[in-house]
Amino acid sequence: MSWEVAIERAVSHSVPNTYEVLASYPHIRQLAREVRKAKEEVIRNLDYYIEEFRKSAERIGGRFYLAERGEDAVEITAKIVGRGKVVVLGKNNVAIETGLRKRLEKEGNEVWETDLGEFLIQIADDEPSHIVAPALHMTKEAAAEVLRRRLGMAVPPDPVAIAQRVREFLRDKLLKADVGITGANALAADTGAVILVENEGNIRMVTALPPVHVVYDGVEKIVPTLIHALYVANVQAAYAGLYPPTYINVTGGPSSTSDIEKHRVSPAQGPKEYHVVLVDNGRRAAAKDPALWEALLCIRCGRCHLHCPVYWALGRGFGKPPYTGPMGVMWTAVTRGIEAAGPHALKCVHAGNCKEVCPVGIDIPQVIHEVRKRYLKNFSKPTR
Amino acid sequence: MEPSLDWVFSLRDIMVSSLQSRRLPLPLDREVCDGWRTGLPLGDGPRALYTSCMYQMAPAIQKAVESLEKLGAARGGLRARLAALGAKAAGGLMLRPDREELERAYRILRNIYNMLRQSGVEFRLLVDEPYSGALLYELGFEEEFAEYAKEVYRYFKERGVKEVITVDPHTHYVLEEVYPKYVEGFDLEVVSYLDLLDAGKIRVKISGFAIHDSCLYARFLGRYERVRQLLAAGTPLENPYITGRETAGCCGGPAESIVPNLAAKIAFSRAQKLATLSRTVVSACPICLANLSRTGIVEVKDVAEVVEL
After folding, report:
1. In terms of CA atoms, which chain B residue is nearest residue A306?
2. Full domain range(s) for residue A240
């Protein structure tokens, strides 16, 4: 089955759903404007908010790490995890950006993606094609085929049956996991809490079942307060066309109880350790860049992909996984530089749909145009 | 479908040298640009109709792209280098648009001219009008564009032009949104002919067509509704997921000079979707007209071919 079939199906499901959600819950657009304001504030003062978040995370009993480069983040996390452990992951684009899973596997850990789409990508040894739906390029037929070929699972090409079979497979891994690693939809500077939006229930288990929870994401996910973080969760889910989301998870430190004499102690049922590894990898430089800063506003709803004629034509050939599609070209520039993003910027047709549908109003065509300009300037040859 | 830098820079060289020698981005005879106004009075005054040679050149671009595809410009590596050499050699030649296509472009421009006159708009015509430089900007050659744009601005100022009537979205966008950022003191008024037509008097000659919006008109220049206002009498067929302002696709045109097979793929998929509404498609942009017509899936007409006063 071809990419054309897969994207056609995804667009026909998701695009009308998203319009319906936005029409049914009109306050979401107002929240989206608030999110933009909050994120602008953080991007303008990124170092200040990183420090605020650190203090808050430590105050609630967490351990905080700031990694300048992707490889630093990977090494820090490899140390936290150790060797010979069972590690379960929530969908995490920064883990893919920095190559975390492979590094943990190298240490002899058994590492499992628990998001269905990401799990399919893992077992197919493939690359993700969409920021929210990594296996977007796989039709149901292709997904069933991957399960049969790689894991010997006989499952019909039916999304319900596929989800059921993978749930059975992963439940055992989740129960015996030593470490759970998630990303973050938003990080609250005032409280040190992380907000995670999901529908599958896997993140809820990844954050609560193993004794250690590691949050692993980019510094731009910080927002000023926990309330803003909840706004981000609502807006992200709505613009992904999945509203209300089945779960919004708040994690504010290791598990705790104050049931004895109202004195809060830790741990209780959930993890005893809460680590937050924040990755810079080009983000702090982008925050100061007159054009690229806008990319940091992105809340990863993945809506721009589904309105982009170049993404319809090329899929993950437009951008560098995990950052594909219009937002992906910007994010390839942020995390891998102009040289890596430039060839993709040259494919942009400036259709402008991405800008129109972006919840936080990023002028994506303009950012991509800027990447294109710089790329051509950097590699310019004198006029003959 | 990866762009080749060798080719992109060769294209820049072709454009810059062509703009220097004849103020057109492609090696075309200047006569191609001016033929449409034969026999029309030039007139005078501060307001000028500015074609930027877009409709006249579009058929030649199509032809140039076809030869590029044959030379393998889209495939990168050695082939791209050969294509670049080929194109450089072709730079010494003159591209010739197909006679029939050129006549059609002239008819479109004459219709625009007549409709403006009938709407009571006063304006003059320009002799040897330069191309706007839009393609240089769109490709990302900022410095080359900035230099050329100053020359174009000077052309207008020397002729006392204060207001420019555009006939296509690329010229309109670059003059209205981009020139002020690159040309110091830029003070030309930019108005689209679509806004000057008397909508109350418009007749639409066909019906049951689908509208393909220009990306620039619909999403960058706020003309989505205006195009519909002008075409309303023809009861265009709409589908919110095919012809919606945020959901409609591009014709692929802007990619055609860099990644022609990507442009063709986008055009093909766009035409297929439009064809589910109607086999007749109306557009308001010479690039859309050329690129969607190439697919052979739909018959594309320009808005100026289907409306009259």
Report:
1. B247
2. 3-281
Q: Which residue in chain A has the smallest CA separation from B253?
A: A349
Mutant choice from A4, A15, A311, A350 vs B, greatest count of B C-beta within 10 A: A350
ipTM score: 0.94
Domain boundary, last residue among A251, A281, A311: A281
Rounded to the nearest 10 degrees, how much is the dihedral formed by the CA atoms of A324, A325, A330, A334?
-10
With a cut of 70, list the residues of chain A below it in pLDDT.
1, 381-384
Q: Answer whether 0.90 is exceeded by the pTM.
A: yes
- The count of structural domains within chain A is 2
- Report d(CA B44, CA A310) in Å as an integer: 44
- Report the chain A residue with the minimal C-alpha distance to residue B170: A350
Nearest to A384 among B3, B5, B13 (CB): B13
Listed by number, the residues of chain A in 82-141 with a beta carbon closer than 8 Å to a beta carbon of chain B are none
Same domain, A258 and A323: no
* pLDDT band for position B4 (cuts 50, 70, 90): confident
- Whether B269 sits inside 8 A of A15 (CB atoms) is no
Strand order in the sheet with B163-166: B47-50, B163-166, B189-192
Q: Quote the Cα angle for A251-A246-A53, to 5°.
A: 25
pLDDT one-digit tens code per residue, A235-253? 999 999 999 999 999 999 9
